[in-house]
Amino acid sequence: MASKLFGGANLSDIARSVKERGEPSPFDKPGSVRPVVPAAELALTGRVAPELERENIFAVDPKRVRPWKYHNRTEAWYTRERCQDLVDSIAKDGQQEPAVARRLKGDPNFDYELIYGMRRRFACELLGKKLKLRVVETDDAHAAVLMHIENADRQDITPMERALSFQTQIEAKVFATQDALAEAIGLSKGQVAKMLKAAAVLKHATLAGLFADKSAIPVIQAYNLAMLLERPGAKEVILQAAKNLARDGEGRAPAEVIRTLIGSLDRSKKFQPVQKQYNVGTARRVTVTRNARGKVTLAFPQGLQGVERAEVIKAVEEILKDLG
Fold first, then answer.
1. Contact 141, 3 (CB under 8 A)
2. Average pLDDT, whole number, for the chain?
3. DSSP labels for 194-214?
4. What is the pLDDT of residues 166-186, one digit of tens each?
5. CA 274, CA 244: separation in Å to the nearest integer?
6. What whole-number distance in Å separates Cα of residue 106 and Cα of residue 171?
7. Which CATH class is domain 2-157?
8. Cβ–Cβ < 8 Å for 57, 130
9. Which of 277, 313, 283, 324 is nearest to 297 (CA)?
10. The overall pTM is greater than 0.85
11. Coil, strand, or helix at residue 300?
């Protein structure tokens, strides 16, 4: 899909071109492995095979750099354990690719805000090294697209992180509509709509409190939960189940939490109690009992000795038909 923000360029073609060409970083060292230029660099310049402009690259104190407020990484990423690969790489070979940032004015605590490159910032600060930045002048809409392109093929940016980022951008009117966001970043309107619906689940404080790491929430399951919350009477049941989980205080994986919440609807169903007898052939009877929780018990007081299999099946089919 083409993005009007970058002159109608097809974003998937941009990313593919980068991978195929493998242009080197301006910070390459002789004899070192030459990394691929991020796809966002191509969008920044608007050229098919851009030359990176050295005059826009600065080495700055990472402590003077803050994240862009619509950044799509959650705080869960900023630990040594989760950034160890990058810490080791920068310690050994230096920072191979610059982060991208905008210059700030009037902020006494920060000089730049990062559009993307927060893990690089974390690693550089941890190592006591300068952070290499490519400084650009761009508005929020362009910045959102650049961030999306940069992270589109990364395995460590989760779908829920993207969904939460899209939600923040829509609420802040970075994009006027969901459709405008979808067109700008090259996703289908339906895909963006589902991601936003999934992210909306966390607007319920009772639900959000169940997830220590929101980035790990499966988007599809969250979307299914969001749809259930819209059913009459379902919201109250699900939120009560969430309160029960919070009270238990057990650490559960996000997928398990959502399965439990969705399953709470089945567990909450009320059934009309039933106690009824059915014929089993001509000589036997079965007593059927169903309690208010839906548990069904079949009792054969006279046993089944001498009863034909077909007679039992016929009786069970009649029971199932009556009980629904």
1. no
2. 79
3. HHHHHHHGGGSHHHHTT-S-G
4. 998 999 898 999 999 999 888
5. 30
6. 25
7. alpha beta
8. no
9. 277
10. no
11. coil
Angstrom distance (rounded) from CA 210 to CA 20: 43
Task: Note whether 199 and 208 are within 8 A (CB).
Answer: no
Is the Cα torsion angle 247, 252, 258, 262 positive or negative in sign?
A: negative
Could you please report the per-residue DSSP string of 227-249?
A: HHHTSTTHHHHHHHHHHHHHHHT
Q: Which residue has the tokens 């195929």?
A: 20
CB 288 within 8 A of CB 319: yes
112-116 and 65-67 as β-strands: parallel, antiparallel, unpaired?
Answer: parallel
- For the chain, the residue count is 324
Domain locations in the chain as residue ranges: 2-157, 205-268, 274-323
Strand order of the sheet with strand 99-103?
A: 57-60, 131-135, 99-103, 112-116, 65-67
Which helix H or strand E contains 19, and what residues bound it?
A: helix 11-21
Render pLDDT for 95-149 as a digit per residue (tens, 0 to 9): 988 989 999 988 999 999 998 888 889 899 999 999 999 998 888 898 888 888 8
Tell me: pLDDT of 25 over 50: no
